[in-house]
Specification:
Length: about 270
């Protein structure tokens, strides 16, 4: 229209060029959050929580303020990796996250339960609403990089996160098996549908280093990670080996003591995005 002012917020016309109303929620008023990175896959058990924790620790080691929002409401494992078992608390200002030994703020539904082994038997809309509250009601403080540990699949929670939280990029997690790679590609295509850039791909359990000869052995076969990166224009491609010490560190709540540079390339890539 000739008289269009290009200010859709005050326009009553239902024209084809009118921009849809944004569903993005603002974080808590006492929070200042830089980049939000979602860690996703289409299948459970491939290591999303491990990668989320490792990325938060790696960025912390590089001098950035990192945080973890555990969006896997029915299967939260982030608190265990960081050795966090106390309940968080809140007041009139909002909810305060738990802090890891090195000062990483963490929010998870397990930090709200009376007993951390109690199951969360909630329907999808309640779960999605809880994740949104972790963004809007938690006092995160100043954070350079927030990592969101997503639940598996492409259902209510991933959709809520992508629509209500300003996600700046995605890290995909896979394992070498072809079936898992196919499922991850479904998650990648969902991300593209939501117009969220795919920044990195991590193949967990990619290989095993023989303690005798020191050589890498791809016991599950080579993954199709390179093909996925080319197809979806993914910037960083990393591999995490099958490492018993890493699993033991997670079980003991000592993930912040891990030794390894497997995700340094991913961290450097994220730092370049600023």
């Amino acid at each position: 229209m000739e008289e269009c002012t290009h200010d859709c917020s005050s326009c009553s016309q239902n024209c084809s060029e009118k921009k849809p109303e944004s569903l993005i929620e603002a974080p808590h008023a006492l929070s200042k959050i830089g980049k939000v990175i979602a860690v996703i896959s289409g299948k459970g058990g491939v290591g999303k929580s491990l990668v989320t924790a490792l990325m938060a620790v790696t960025m912390r080691r590089k001098g950035y303020a990192s945080a973890v929002l555990d969006a896997d409401i029915t299967g939260p494992s982030i608190p265990q990796a960081f050795g966090l078992h106390q309940q968080v608390y809140g007041d009139d200002n909002g909810i305060y996250p738990a802090f890891s030994k090195t000062g990483i703020p963490v929010m998870s539904v397990n930090l709200l339960l009376e007993k951390e082994t109690d199951p969360v038997v909630w329907r999808g809309p309640i779960i999605a609403g809880t994740v949104k509250q972790f963004w809007t009601d938690v006092i995160w403080g100043e954070v350079d990089y927030m990592f969101v540990d997503m639940p598996p699949g492409t259902g209510d929670v991933p959709l809520t996160v992508f629509q209500s939280i300003p996600v700046d990029g995605i890290i995909l997690v896979t394992t070498p098996q072809e079936l898992v790679g196919m499922i991850v590609e479904k998650a990648a295509k969902m991300a593209e549908m939501m117009n969220v850039p795919l920044l990195g791909l991590v193949t967990n359990n990619a290989y095993f280093v023989c303690p005798n000869c020191g050589k890498k052995h791809y016991i599950f076969g080579k993954s199709n990670a390179e093909e996925l990166c080319k197809e979806h224009n993914i910037k960083a491609n990393c591999e995490i080996p099958t490492e018993p010490k890493l699993a033991a560190a997670c079980d003991a709540g000592m993930i912040e003591l891990f030794e390894g540079s497997w995700l340094d390339k991913m961290a450097d890539m994220l730092a370049e995005q600023k």
